[in-house]
Design brief:
heterodimer, A: 509 residues, alpha+beta, D-Maltodextrin-Binding Protein, domain 2, Dipeptide-binding Protein, domain 1, Dipeptide-binding Protein, domain 3, 3 domains, eleven-stranded mixed β-sheet, four-stranded antiparallel β-sheet, 17 helices, 17 strands, 33% helix, 23% strand, B: 326 residues, mainly alpha, MetI-like fold, two-stranded antiparallel sheet, 2% strand
Chain lengths: 509, 326
Amino acid sequence: MKIKVIIACCLALLLYNKAVATTLKIAYDTDPVSLDPHEQLSESTLQFSHLVFDPLLRWNKNGQFEARLATKWERLDSHTMRFFLRKNVVFSTGNTFSSKDVAYTIERLKKSPDFRAMFDTIDKVTMVDEYTIDVHTTYTNPLLLNIMTYVFPIDKAFYQGKDQIIKYGETFASRNVSGTGPYILDNRELGSWMELTRNPNYWDKNSKGNADKIILTPIRTDSTRLAALLSGDVDFIFPVSPIDIERAKKVSGIQLVTLPSTRILLLHMNQNRRKEFQDVRVRKAINLAINQALIVDKILKGYATPAGQLSSDRFLGHINGLEPEYDVEKALELMKEAGYEKGFRISMMAPNNRYMSDEKVAQAISAMLSRIGITVELKTLPKAQYFKEYDNRSADMMMLGWQSDTMDSNNLFEFIIACPDTNTGMGAYNASEYCRPEIDADIRQANREMNPERRLRLLQQIEWKIYNDSAVVPLYWQSLTWAAKDGVNIKDIVNDQNYPHIGDLFIEE
Amino acid sequence: MLIFLLRRLLQACFVMIIISLISFSIQDKLGDPVQQMVAMTVSPEERNQLRNELGLNDGFLIQYWRFAKGAIQGDLGTSYYYKEPALDVILEKLPATLELAFCAILIVILIATPCGVMAAIKPKHILSRLLMVTSSIGLSVPIFIVAILMVYIFSIELNIAPSFGRGQTTEVLGLWESGLFNKNGLSHLLLPSLSLAIALMPIFVRLIRAEMMDVLQSEYIRFAWSKGLSARRIYFIHALKNTMLPVITVGGIQAGTLVAYTILTETIFQWPGMGFLFMDSVSRVDTPLVSAYLIVVGGIFVITNTFVDLIYGLFNPTVRLASHGL
């Protein structure tokens, strides 16, 4: 009898819990351009992918891989890796997930203009059986697993035949979606809001996620977004601007979570435009004259980590103890030695709405450089115009922020440090026009080196060379700050790539 | 009347051609649309190919000719972001902006008229003086400060009105989605329309006051007094009607300010209207949408001013339309 009562109570409780729907209202600064997960490689597309699709594997908080749609994987030989897929997973259309979907997704990624560069390394995918696939790479690739975190299998039966990717036109995939993810898209008004409901057939029964409904609103203005959280109109926001963080912290009922990210901010000194920058002493002097710690402390209010190198401590190439140096005396001496005692004039450009407080940071830098006699004509531009100027290399000194897609140092070196080469795409963002063939050779070798020890040494060697040459001016690694109402346990689900795992978000009643 | 309207139509076409030329020539300065469409890692050649496909590498005249050909058929280009005809996107957002502007104008009329009249009738009264002081403060405080202050007071501290968005909408006669007919929509409308009204109000209060004081000195009002008409009839029928002429003219000119202020208000309150759309498309370098917006707004200007001239005739029958407005 007693047991029956307890069971009845439990059932009643269960039903009660079911009856009270939990809605989570999220406000980010952007929303995905398209429902097609392969149309644009951007933060908002990937955030959306984590909601409606599932990756084969993902990064957990400690920088380790976590199995998702792939349950395990093993290396067969130097060019091949085998993935075992999860069974009993269905797409929101009801189609069953199997190896054909993964093979199809990777083929499609290889055709996507944005993802192509990353997936070029995959030669082909073969299906061993319904739940096993082999991924063949063109060369031995130590980063294959990192790349596989971008594989969010899509429903082959649903997309096939109407899966073209067009950047500026409507396609079937940009308007319709079928994934295996924790949420199913209900409705959407592009640029205004998006409504999702919890997938009742979600395979991950261990997930703590309990939001039945999600309403995602992009709010572009920092102050409006914060006001929306403070007034209770939304539950979870990103980002919080550094000047608001202290104020938001004082409000009761609001929690802030900050994580250091791997996005490096740096300055390029264009050696083709200025002969002065060809002199390593001048480059060193500039590095010494800029006080990264002060910028982080005063302008970013501590929400960044001063950087003396490009690789953040999560990356393999990071050198412990290589801190930013600041010494104006020595900088002045170096300038004198190089014959620029009287200083010179340079132009500098920076964006004013791309990175956290970018304009103020640029102003601070121009003030710091004036102390060693370098007069900076600073021009800041909105990001839409800035990157056009960046591609044209329109100023002697330019600011850049870079997030490595593969979570590896080599991606930074390939795009920022390697000799610019339009054929291979290497050095595409190298606005220093700095070129060291031996670094290029190291980069190529690190791309194939499977031995972690040797790979670590290679990457650190590149990092040392950049430091000794003062090739660029590393500034800081930006931090990410989220805010939410108390009771929304965002601490457990945010990560340094800014792809919050909302599917696992637990909200206390 | 017909000739007047025809002339206005001609004028509108002329204005829009000029606007389209200007908007076309500044497109280059906005930035690179392709940059917004692709990831950082996409190679320059691929970007260039995309630019070719979009026709962005053609000369200015070729691009303008292509645009003009479409525009004659009512096609103002396709938005890069929304991937729909730019005009459709704008018209979809138009009701939200119109409702906001309508409510703001309503608030202005309902509050500014009695305030202005009051300040004119009893210029020495303490309330009138207070009104004048607040209106000059209102004139000098920028709208975004007003808006942010309102959000702070009414949403964050008092928690009586939502801080952003448009809330629920209901469909009216199958024509448009309206926020005016349900409580949630109205509560969302409160702060944006009030901020917009506060920005526009002071100039009207001062104008009505000055005009009214002028009119009250005139012969016919003195005559009306001696005739023994009631005070209410003199102030609100005889005097106010003649006060309104310059007010309407200024109102027509203020339509431009209204459009500019809706852009600001909508951005601050995340109001999903045309102004917000415009700001967004500028930052996304959605050039077809930017051009289309400027042309539509140009059209709205011409239409409002035509209306103003028509209303002018109603208030003052001595104004002849045919000789007016061109």
